[in-house]
Amino acid sequence: MHIKRKYLKIFIHIVIWLLAILLPMVLFNNPEKEFTIDKIIFFIIHVSLFIIIFYSNYLFFIPILLSKRKFIFYTLAIIISISFLVLFNHIASSIILPDIAAPNTHNYRFKGSLVFFSTFLIAISTSIKVTQNWYENEKQKNIIKNEKLNSELSFLKSQINPHFLFNTLNNIYSLANRKSEHTPNAIIKLSHLMRYMLDDAKKETVELSKEINYLSDYIELQKLRMADKSKIKFNVIGDGIKKEIEPMLLIPFVENAFKHGDIFSDDAKIDILLKIEQTKMLFKVENKIDRSQKTKNDKGSGIGLNNLKKRLELLYPEKHRFTTEIKDDIFVSVLKIWFNK
Predict the structure, then answer these.
(1) Which carries the bigger pLDDT value, residue 38 or residue 336?
(2) Strand positions, DSSP E, 201-296
(3) 329: left (phi > 0), else alpha (psi -120 to 50), else beta?
(4) Which of 105, 138, 171 is the last residue of a domain?
(5) Do the domain assignments include residue 153?
(6) Do 128 and 18 fall within a single domain?
(7) Do 60 and 123 fall into the same domain?
(8) For residues 269 and 231, is the Cβ–Cβ distance under 8 A?
């Protein structure tokens, strides 16, 4: 498939430049005179300039200016390029190559045809580049969609896995036996968790405030199995309303902290910070680890974060920063995301 696309691209460019060669010959041709070698040389010079204009627009002006919505600079670049072509024609036909230039190259009609054909070539190169970019974007969307489909089962198993559900239901059962007033609230939080997983997690993006509520419910349910709940801190600075984010993007950090962190020792802790600004957000998770309790199972502790790294590269290219490190037996993971404007 890749080879076919490559040959198709080459074929399209060949067709374009066949037109670029034939059309100037028609424009230059004088029925009363033969098409001489000198004229052909003059035509080749102009075709070369057309090629330069075409690929300047295709390779530089569109990616650097048009794709970044710098419309004024893009328009100026096009005008300057066409003006250069017309100026070169005037200099070549009047000064450098006056002997081989066709007589009609000095009139305004011919210069107008140069402007028209240059604009025509720029329009073609723009159409090709825009179509190519659209195709690549659609391809990238399909990759993301497939990645999401492949990761959904993984999320269902890792975030709301049977082990977590078993512990949560067991804790709720214990609360019910003690006739604790916290039992209804725990059941409600579990239902919120499941509803988010079944409904909102299927969407392309969700409001950040919903993701925050999901994290809060998850943390509160995890606290049910801890005697000292003060070891778990979740602070949110800023407003998550009207800020969109990929669903289930933050939970791997928290799940990793509870699953692989040392949360039952005297100095155990999990500190979670979410700072939301107008154009970006910072998510930081710190959890105590016990190096002496490393087992073979810990080799898989980074799988969730590695999968997350891949998702971030697909979903937020050049708009995120993700780092992890260990400081004095504290595992620190930091995620920065710049919101789409």
Answers:
(1) 336
(2) 206-207, 232-237, 244-245, 270-276, 280-288
(3) left
(4) 138
(5) no
(6) yes
(7) yes
(8) yes
Listed range (21-25, 172-176, 328-332) with the worst mean pLDDT: 21-25
Domain assignment of residue 312, yes or no: yes
Task: Report how far apart, in Å, the C-alpha atoms of 236 and of each of 49, 84, 239, 274, 276 are.
Answer: 59, 57, 8, 5, 8
Q: With cut-offs at 50, 70 and 90, classify the pLDDT of residue 82.
A: confident
Asked whether residue 186 is assigned to any structural domain, the reply reads yes
Coil, helix or strand at residue 340: coil
Report yes or no on 147 lying in a domain. Answer: no
User: Is pLDDT at 300 greater than 70 in this prediction?
Assistant: no
Query: pLDDT tens digit string along 118-142?
Result: 888 888 888 888 888 888 878 777 7
Q: 232 phi and psi, to 5 degrees? A: -105, 120
The overall average pLDDT reported for the chain is: 78
Residue percentage of the chain with pLDDT more than 90: 15
Q: What is the DSSP letter of 293?
A: G
234 and 163 fall within a common domain = yes
Instruction: List residues bridging with 324 in a β-sheet.
Output: 333
- Whole-Å CA distances, 168 to 6, 109, 281: 55, 83, 30
Q: What residue numbers bound the domain in which 65 lies?
A: 2-138
**Residue at which a domain ends, from 138, 173, 197:** 138
Confidence of residue 152 (pLDDT cuts 50, 70, 90): low
Handedness of CA 34, 40, 45, 49 (dihedral sign): positive
Residue 64 DSSP one-character state: I
How many distinct structural domains can be found in the chain?
2
Asked if residue 288 lies in contact with residue 329, where contact means CB atoms within 8 angstroms, the answer is yes
Give yes or no: residues 11 and 114 share one domain: yes
